[in-house]
Amino acid sequence: MIEKDAFGFFVTLGLMMIVVYVTRIAGYWLIGRLVIGPRLRRMLNALPGAIIAATVAPALVQGGLRAVLALAATLVVMIVVRKDFPAVLAGVAVAAAAFAYGL
Amino acid sequence: MTAPPASSDARWTLAAFRHGAIDVLAFVPGLAGFAMAYGTVAARKGMTLFETLLMSGTIFAGVAQMVVLDSWPQTLTAGAIAGLVALTALVNARYLMIGATLRPLLGGQPAGKVYPTLFFLVEPPWLMSLRYHSNGGRDPAYLLGGGIAMYVVWVTTAIPGYLAGAAIGNPKQFGIDLLVPAFFVAMMVSLWRGPRRAYGLVVGALAAALTEYLFGGFWYLIVGAMAGCAAGVLNDD
Question: How many domains does chain B have?
Fold first, then answer.
C-alpha cells in the first residue's frame, strides 16, 4: 500500500517525472545535432508507421479472434469513411459484441 | 535550422492552438476510458485521490503509469524504486523516436517555447501534427493545443475512474481494452502512402508480433520500432 511510505512515493514520482520528460525532449534534441542524410531521413520517415504498427501487432497476437475482428472492423470503416471516430467506434462495438458472444 | 526568423512571427498563434485542440477531440473518448481505467487501478492499489491525480499531472504518460502501478511493490526499497524508474524509461523510450520526428515542425523555434511544449507531447497530438505538417501546417501551437487538451482530459477523467474503483468490472465487456489499438489502426490508414513506402510499417508489425509472441513484456515496442526503422531505408522517397 502506498500511503504507508509517502516519502518513497514522492521520490519515485519525482524520478519518473524526470525520466519521462527526458524521453520527451531527448529525441528532438539529438536529431537537431545530427546531420540528416537521405538514409537517415528515410529511416525517420518510416518511424511513425513502425511505432504504430509495433503497438497494434501484439494486441492482435494477445487478443486472438476478438481483437482481429474488432480491428478489422476499424480498418474497413476507416478505409470507407476516412473518419477516426466512427472507425474506432465500430471496432469497439465489434469487440463488445464478440465478448458478449463469448470470444 | 530550417525556419527563417521572419516566419516565426506568424507562429504560436491562438488559432493554431485551438485547431490542434479541436483535432484531438476524436481521441477524447479513448483517452477518457484509459484515464478512468488508470483511476480504477490506482484506487485498487490504495493510492489517495490526490496521489492519483498528482501522478497523472506530473508524468502524463498513460502506459508508463499503468505499468508502474501494476508492478508497484509492497514495500518501496531503493532497488524497487530503481526498477520502477527503469521500467518507466523503457516504456517511454518510444518518445525518443516520436520526438525525433517532430524536428521538421519544431526545428528553428525558440527553445523557451519548444521544451515546455514537449512536456505535453503525447501520441494523439503527435499523430495529428504529422498530418498537419504533411498538409502544409507550420505552426507549432497546433501541437501544444492538442497536448494541453489531452492533458486536461487525462487528469480530470481519472477522477470518476478512481471513484468507481473496482465497480467497473471487466473492461473487455465494453471493448475498452481495444480502444487504443483501434485508434492506431485508424491512424495507419491515414499515414498509408502506398506499399512501396510501407516496408517500415510491415517489418515493424511483424517484428513486434514475433517479439511479443516469443518474449512478452514491453520489448516488442523497442524491437518493432527499431526493425521498422531499419527497414525504412528500403522505402522509396
Answer: 2
